[in-house]
# Entry
Amino acid sequence: MPGRKHDVNNHTYIIFYKPYGVLSQFTDSAGRKTLSDFGPFPKDVYPVGRLDADSEGLLLLTDDTNAKHHLLEPGFDHTRTYLVQVERIPTREQLAKLESGVVIEGKKTKVATVVKLEQEPQLPPREVPIRFRKNVATSWLEITLTEGRNRQVRKMTAAVGHPTLRLFRVAQEGLTLAGLQPGKHRRLTKTEASLLLDSLGSSPHS
# Structure
């Protein structure tokens, strides 16, 4: 796609490992933890979308407004994968419903990939522990979406009767947190940035 090389050479792309309780922004009038507590970050980079304060994991930041548009505009599908701890054990029917789409706020979610994990994933302990309900089992799911509606994963699991307890984004359009610790960040290499831009395509999906 024309201009891609120019974009890679003239823009900054950063992966940040967002810890629990941190806002996906640089300032907060209430004094809560923000990205500014984990910098310094280059000038003019901003988060692509957001992870809520109670969610953890991969957050992409860039000063490339075109890439940000492609990653946020609903018409451009791109993947993001989450590890999700939920209350109780979903049935096959409930997992199938999550995959085929559930209605949240009057609109059905797009087809997703949902896998029930047999073992708990190896994640660092959360600063604020999960509040478990006595005698209520929990389970872990791996959910891959191609859209990013507000608090979508939490609303999806709640819609099938399994509230989310912990939410962790492990990947976004081929990018992962490999080699990063909570609160740390790194710039994408030119190769990684080129692959990211190439994956976004030039036309929105119908």
